[in-house]
Structure formats: structure tokens, C-alpha cells
Amino acid sequence: MERVLQVENLCTEFKTERGMLKAVDGVSFEVREGEMLGIVGESGCGKSVTSQSILRLYDEKSFVRYTGDVRFHDESLLTLPEKQMESVRGAKISMVFQDALSSLNPVFTVGDQIMEAILIHQKRTKAEAKAQAIEMLNMVGIPDPARRFHQYPFELSGGMRQRVMIAVALACHPQLLIADEPTTALDVTIQAQIMDLIVDMNKRLGMAVMLITHDLAVVAETCDRVIVMYLGQIVEEGRVEDIFDHPMHPYTMGLMNSIPKLDTAKATRLYQISGTVPLLNQIPVGCRFAPRCPYATDLCREEMPGLSRVTQTQSVRCHYRNEQNGGFVEEPPQYEAG
Ligand code: SF4
């Protein structure tokens, strides 16, 4: 499969009164045609900042600095002039945000908002754009699309609004869809419907998808590969089966252990990773996970581990999981139920 996106050593720093704060630190990964890549981690781990940096959505003039490289096919997005960047956003790479109500414009009908995307990026007459917008509403499963076209966002349910957001994002047939917590504000039934829709679009249109989520079950069901982020860095990367069947980083193991299990003979308390993600101005020296890691040693507290390939398909950022020891020198530590 052809590579659609390649991110190389991406760093995103915000200018603040306390100096530059690095929210994304040396992140590298790629996304291939038709692939679904999941990005997981707690809030504050840099998942959304990474995805928004790809499209340079933060205001570079005033408060952000990007370094590294983001290549979309042959174009280097971090250095592309703003005018050309406008033809990438929404046309070649689209984004769906978690809160459709605040992302849609309340004073325009949903039809107008889909048409706007089509008219900006494609050579269409208004009549053609309207027909295409109604077709998009139909494609994302909105009943009676010709009537819904004339409605305002407040007239639709949360699930319908999220479908409209997806229709806007897909209106110009992007090659990459970035879905940032697309189901967070929805109830579980609607969540499942929206995820089915995204997977269906991924399969039918061959569009690559970057899915940013807290929901590990959704990743297990829908994605091909997974990236686990912690405090601005990738700590583990691999195929879904690698990460879910044999997580190697203690943080990933903690995340996996915190998934409720229905098949255990007797109920156990849910595991909880101790502590919280530190603030960006309090990043620990050495391994960033050391203050929360039950296996931390002096080496961990002094030296930052690199991201090493441990198997052909799995990379881990941990001193005790690397190519030399194959990741299996010690038995993976077992977490006790908290
Ligand atoms: Fe834990 Fe040390 Fe590995 Fe960091 S390097 S994850 S502190 S064992």
C-alpha cells in the first residue's frame, strides 16, 4: 500500500509566559493508503496536538513553533505556503472533531456548510454542489436528506450532527481522514453507528483514517495499527494484535489492564495507573513514565529511553524492552488489581 502521510521527528512547542512548552516531542510515524491507525493515550499525552499539527491548525504567528517534517505524498506540509495549505485542508486531508455542535456554524444550514466545502475545493456550480451535498447526507445515513439539507445544526440530534460533520469532511473525497474522538459526546448506540460509518467509508473509499481515541475497545475492533502516546512521545507502536495480545511498555500494559473484563470468574477491581500525566512544565528527567511506573530503576530516572524496534512489527520506548534483549529477558511485569 502506498504511503499517504509520513511524520518525521515532529515537535510542537507552544509559547507561554513560562517559556516554550513542548507538547509533541520527536514523533515519527506513517499512514498508508486504506489503513486505519489508532492513536491512544490519556488526556494530555499529545494525541490531538499531533493531529492538529499535521494540518498546522495552530496560529504560527503568535504562539506555536513546529519542527520536523510532515510529508503528504511529496508535499512537505510544515513548509508549504499558507495559500497552498488551504487546498490541502478539507480537500486532501479532512478532520472530524469531537464536538459537532461547536464545530458546525449555528447560523448556516447543514446543507450550506457541506456546499461551502464543495464550492471552495471543487469546480462545481451551485446546483451541482447542492446535489452533491444531498448525496453526501444520504451517504452518511441521514434519512430524508433533501429536507435535512435545509435544517440548522440545533434542529438535529447529536448523532445526526456528527454524521453531518463526517459528510462535510468527506465531501471532497480526502485521502486521509483524521477523526479526533469522533464519538466522545454520544451515547453508546450512536457511538457504534458513527464508528461503523467511519469504517464503512474507510473500506468503500479506500481512505486512510487516523483515529484518535481513549476507547481501546474501538481501536481493537476497527484499527490495523496502534500508536500509544505518553507525554508528547510515542511509547509503543505496533499492529493491533501485537499491542492487545502482547503489550510491552508498562504504560500500555496499564492501559490494557484498565479495560473491564466480562469473562473473569469473579469480579475484580479495575486496575488504575497510579498518578496523573505531569504538566508540560514538569516533565521528568529520564523516562517520562518513571514517576508512575512500578518497575522504574535509577537508570530510568536518569536516562531517557529511545523508541526501539523489539520485534519486526512492534517498537517500544523502555530500557527493559529493546532489540538486544528481544523484550523477553524478564517476564513482562504483572499488574496487581488496584
Ligand atoms: Fe518503566 Fe523504566 Fe521502562 Fe520507563 S524505562 S517504562 S520507568 S521500566
Would you write up a description of this structure?
This protein has 338 residues and is an alpha/beta fold. It has 2 domains: 3-223, 3-Layer(aba) Sandwich (Rossmann fold); 252-316, no CATH class. 31% of the residues lie in helices and 23% in strands. It has helices spanning 47-54, 82-86, 100-103, 110-121, 126-139, 145-148, 158-170, 188-205, 216-222, 240-245, 250-257, 298-302; strands spanning 3-16, 19-32, 36-40, 64-72, 75-76, 93-96, 176-180, 208-212, 225-230, 233-239, 308-311, 314-316. It has an 8-stranded mixed β-sheet with strand order 6-7-8-3-9-10-12-11, with helices on both faces. Strands 2-1-4-5 form a 4-stranded antiparallel β-sheet. Strand 4 (64-72) and strand 5 (75-76) form a beta hairpin. Helix 4 (110-121) packs across helix 5 (126-139), helix 5 (126-139) crosses helix 7 (158-170) and helix 7 packs parallel to helix 8. The longest helix has 18 residues, at 188-205. Residues 331-335 have low confidence and may be disordered. Iron/sulfur cluster (SF4) binds next to loops.
